Amino acid sequence: RNFPVNQQIVYMGWCEAREQDPLQDRVYSPAFLALRGSCLYKFPAPPVTTWDWTRAEKTFSVYEIMCKILKDSDLLDRRKHCFTVQSECGEDLYFSVELECDLAQWERAFQTATFLEVERIQCKTYACVLESHLMGLTIDFSSGFICFDAATKAVLWRYKFSQLKGSSDDGKSKIKFLFQNPDTKQIEAKELEFSNLFAVLHCIHSFFAAKVACLDPLFLGNQASASAAGTSATTSKAKYTN
């Protein structure tokens, strides 16, 4: 906890990862997941040294992935307490934990890690195409959505998060945004094309989730308690060491 926010470990522990290769002898294999700073890490064994953190099997940006707690109707087999992580490429990673309380802990951990990272970076810009022209879309925690010309940096349009009334995508590259004009109250459709569709969709979701979390006193209270507990634990450990 003495590290900068982008290096702090939010949570880590063992899960069972469901193999995607049907030719594998074992359906599940142990996986050690760690939410640290800006990333989710997947290891075959817990990282012990600083060097171990550079040798993860997979690494994902927390604001570009989507964690989903599965309902009974979504389960792939008889195992309960499962969740998926959809990567920025659209790949679904399927995990199982032993207890329901473990599942709740992972859900809270993903929410916390995402909130902390969005709060830290404040904005993210993605390259996109509008009518064959190279553009940029900035998702800004304070301002909302800003679309600008990549060459001239001239702003084409901007909307607040509250003005987004709906969106849809083709599952490949295109996103259609439906914004409400604050003056006319009319819905204005804006369609952009991205090379990294799922990363953009997950990022937008992460920023929205962080905005909602800022309005949730219970979430903010838990964050303050966790911070205080971390400080207390660090102080106690120092006293014990001395």
UniProtKB/TrEMBL annotation:
The keyword Transport does not apply. It comes from the Eukaryota. Gene3D superfamilies: Pleckstrin-homology domain (PH domain)/Phosphotyrosine-binding domain (PTB). Its main location: cytoplasm. One of its GO terms (molecular function) is structural molecule activity. Residues 122-214 form the Syntrophin C-terminal PH domain. It is found in: Cytoplasm. One of its GO terms (cellular component) is cytoplasm. Keywords: Cytoplasm. This is Syntrophin C-terminal PH domain-containing protein. It comes from Jaculus jaculus (Lesser Egyptian jerboa).
